[in-house]
Amino acid sequence: MKSVNVNASDGGAEAETAALVVEKPKSRQFQAFEGFPAPFGATARDGGVNFAVYSSNAVSATLCLLSLSDLHEKRVIEQISLDPLTNRSGDVWHVFLKGDFEDMLYGYKFDGKFSPEEGHYYDPSQILLDPYAKGVLSREEFGVLGPEGDCWPQMACMVPSANDEIRCWYFLCLENSAVLV
């Protein structure tokens, strides 16, 4: 959003008014492919990112992509429904995406049986963290519900890039250089 001040004159008196210009979020396009069931989490590879997560009782899974500003503004850029015939191997849901992942975050929505007595709390309206995520960002309001009990995600997982993977491996090697001979 941008704020623009406009000076208006009616022949003698000047009045300053403020106009609000709302910019639409960048439209991002992603190409979706079957993906791989391993490794778990989001992994940069082959010019894209593979997403894989375990859920034995989910009947459907949706990958939600958002930016940091979307996290604060309660907006999802893209929701990719995973097909259980092509994007599921056993109990692992997976998809491979190609596209622009710069500053991108993600989470999942799962649907299934809601039966607390059996330990099943599926709610397809809630975005969940990936337990295998390599990084998580917070909107810095952890534990604070919004108006009327709004539970918009407090955090989201970071989508890695190929450079992140190389950088992490490089620092891991530096930290363990005494072990590597």
TrEMBL record:
One of its GO terms (biological process) is carbohydrate metabolic process. One of its GO terms (molecular function) is hydrolase activity, hydrolyzing O-glycosyl compounds. Residues 39-133 form the Glycoside hydrolase family 13 N-terminal domain. It holds the Pfam family CBM_48. InterPro entries: GlgX_Isoamylase_N_E_set, Glyco_hydro_13_N, Ig-like_fold, Ig_E-set. It comes from the Eukaryota. Gene3D superfamilies: Immunoglobulins. Belongs to the glycosyl hydrolase 13 family. This is Isoamylase 1. It comes from Actinidia rufa.
